[in-house]
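In response to reviewer comment 3 from the previous cycle, which asked for concrete evidence that the modeling workflow produces usable outputs, we include below a single protein chain processed end to end. The sequence was submitted unchanged, and the resulting structure tokens are shown without manual editing.
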Amino acid sequence: MATTADFRNGMCIEYNGQLYFIVEFLHVKPGKGPAFVRTKLKNVATGKVIDNTFNSGVRVNEARVERRPYQYLYKDDMGYNFMNTETYEQIPIEEKFLTSPELLKEGENVEVVVHAETETILAVDMPPFMTFEVTYTEPGVRGDTSSTNSLKPATIETGATIMVPLFVNTGDKIKVDTRDKSYVERLK
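The workflow returned the following structure tokens.
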């Protein structure tokens, strides 16, 4: 059992008979009345994010989860196949557990979040930033913009399309934020 004082981002709790990850939380102590905690909870099964308010000091069941290192191998009709980097065990994982499957590269290391008691897979966490090579993009033309931060589509090595600045060309290496699929910087 945990209380609202134990809340932290990424914590997995049981609430209304389902598992939720705490996306964000805020302890509020108003001038009048008791303290409370505002939270954003992400449902593990559906991925839906809900807002919820807990009274301060309320006890909730904390679900025991483990983060295990896996490496992405390949995709087939069974799903995405991963290998545990410690035991070399291979498992297929359905696409619904991946946040950005179009950004997965073969050989990429990820963390698989597993419910410790039932051994069920809850989520696959990719690294927050990954490096990709741009395989195709239209050349940017000087004077072709009406604003300073214009973007153009670029296809990266996994086949996904990312919006990049005009100065990025085919063959460039770029850093991408996997959480929102956005361009971060061009690498040398």
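Residues 97 and 123 are 5 Å apart (CA to CA). We consider this sufficient to address the reviewer's concern, and the full set will be provided in the supplementary archive.
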